Automatic annotation (TrEMBL):
Species annotation: Butyricimonas virosa
Entry annotated with the keyword Transmembrane helix: yes
Membrane spanning residue stretches: 12-37, 58-79, 94-112, 133-152, 177-200, 207-226, 256-273, 367-386, 421-440
Protein name: Oligosaccharide repeat unit polymerase
Record keywords: Membrane, Transmembrane, Transmembrane helix
């Protein structure tokens, strides 16, 4: 952030404390330090308004939520409990949790800045011939359609898989291999659509034509991605918009922000709707306090780290967490993964949970500040690399731009979520993207 935004953000934070009557010393110090570091690194790491879907914007938003928005929310609503864990967090644990988050942020910025030190003004053109794209897209399409037909059999069964209860019932009597193919199908089909879009020439086409193609493609991708998992639907849609913006369609920041807020409403509403086929989809009201709790929970606030600080005797869980979600072989790792330990200690069971064991928490539990520093320096460097390729590949084909963004948004899980989710994304979500990257590997010109 530049100096003006830095001052305005801090003044707003102070204003919130004045009107609420709650003065938070720790959060004030954290916000001040975060804004100062953000200001110093402004020319290296900030919001890119030219490329709204640049990976750096998503990383920036994550840190902004964790180190500014959540402290603002804490002024009015405090911190929610972590499952059954005691919600009366001590000032010492909250302080240490924020220190871990700040350490994570500084390490990420260091890795990011190190990548930027060497001038990199290369403009890349990644292209493969249309025949190859058509063949790959057709294979993806046939595999996806065939897998979904075999698994779900009819359209009503397919549509009902957005509900958690219905999904579990369907899964209960299906062959595991067919089940795995049906999961992969929902990631292959969006890339089939992106491949066919690459074959369309958008040059000299009017804006109405472009928006119509974008709208129809979004409907198709959403339909083929229908899932009880929100991320599996959102990521392909974001990838579609990232492929179109700004090369084909230029979207201004204000409309993009408004659309993002509307989408956030539906995402939060979907969390309740998916739990019951009888839930109302026409009217859904979100209470302010419930919204605040949801943001603190899913954005990974400092309070999510506090249990690890008081119980850090568990080590060597990262590898187990990474392989936790793999079919068959994952059973060998689940009993000792970070997610399982987290559930056993704080929720009283070892089954599945909608919560995640965040990467910074697991790094701290396994190796303290040193591991947090090393891991997020590496993450910052590689994330800067992906961001560089995305921005400097605007003259590449739509399919390549989409693939790079998709890999980056999945890689974003290392910042936003957990090692378990990272492994899950790599084995399930990323397979079609990795196949496409393999096809592009020797086609730089």
């Amino acid at each position: 952030m530049n100096s003006i935004c830095t001052v305005l953000c801090f003044c707003l934070f102070v204003f919130f404390q004045i009107i609420s009557g709650h003065f938070l010393a720790i959060e004030s110090g954290v916000v001040c330090f975060y804004l100062l570091v953000s200001n110093l690194s402004y020319h290296k790491f900030n919001i890119n308004f030219k490329y709204l879907f640049a990976p750096q914007n998503f990383a920036f938003i994550i840190f902004f939520f964790r180190l500014y928005i959540i402290p603002c929310i804490a002024i009015f609503y405090g911190y929610p409990s972590v499952g059954g864990y005691n919600e009366d967090f001590t000032q010492e644990t909250i302080l240490q949790s924020y220190i871990i988050l700040l350490f994570m942020y500084i390490s990420f910025i260091s890795g990011w800045t190190y990548f930027q030190l060497k001038p990199r003004n290369n403009v890349y053109k990644y292209k493969i011939n249309h025949k190859q794209i058509y063949i790959v897209s057709s294979i993806f399409l046939l595999f996806g359609i065939f897998s979904l037909i075999i698994y779900f059999r009819d359209i009503n069964t397919y549509l009902s898989n957005i509900y958690l209860s219905e999904t579990e019932e369907i899964v209960g009597f299906k062959n595991k291999i067919i089940q795995l193919c049906s999961i992969w199908a929902k990631f292959f089909l969006p890339f089939a659509i992106l491949g066919y879009l690459t074959l369309i020439c958008f040059n000299n086409k009017n804006i109405v034509f472009k928006f119509c193609i974008l709208f129809l493609s979004a409907i198709l991708i959403l339909f083929f991605s229908l899932n009880s998992n929100r991320q599996s639907m959102v990521y392909p849609l974001l990838t579609l918009f990232a492929a179109f913006t700004p090369k084909i369609i230029k979207i201004k920041p204000i409309p993009a922000i408004l659309c993002g807020i509307i989408c956030l409403y539906f995402l939060i509403a979907f969390a309740d709707i998916r739990t019951s086929p009888n839930a109302s989809t026409t009217a859904y009201s979100i209470q302010t306090q419930e919204l605040a709790k949801t943001v603190e929970l899913y954005a990974g606030g400092a309070h999510m780290i506090t249990p690890v600080i008081e119980n850090n005797e568990f080590k060597c869980t990262i590898i187990n967490s990474f392989f936790h979600s793999l079919p068959a072989i994952g059973k060998l790792f689940r009993d000792h993964s970070g997610l399982t330990i987290y559930n056993q200690l704080y929720f009283g069971f070892s089954g599945r949970s909608d919560l995640v064991f965040h990467t910074q928490s697991e790094c701290y539990m396994n190796g303290g500040y040193i591991l947090v520093m090393l891991f997020f320096i590496l993450i910052g460097y590689f994330y800067a690399y992906l961001n560089h390729i995305y921005i400097h590949s605007m003259d590449s084909q739509l399919l390549f731009r989409a693939t790079i963004f998709y890999i980056a948004i999945l890689f974003n899980s290392s910042i936003l979520q957990s090692f378990q989710v990272m492994g899950q994304f790599l084995f399930y979500n990323a397979i079609p993207a990795l196949i496409i990257l393999f096809l592009y590997r020797k086609n730089i010109r």
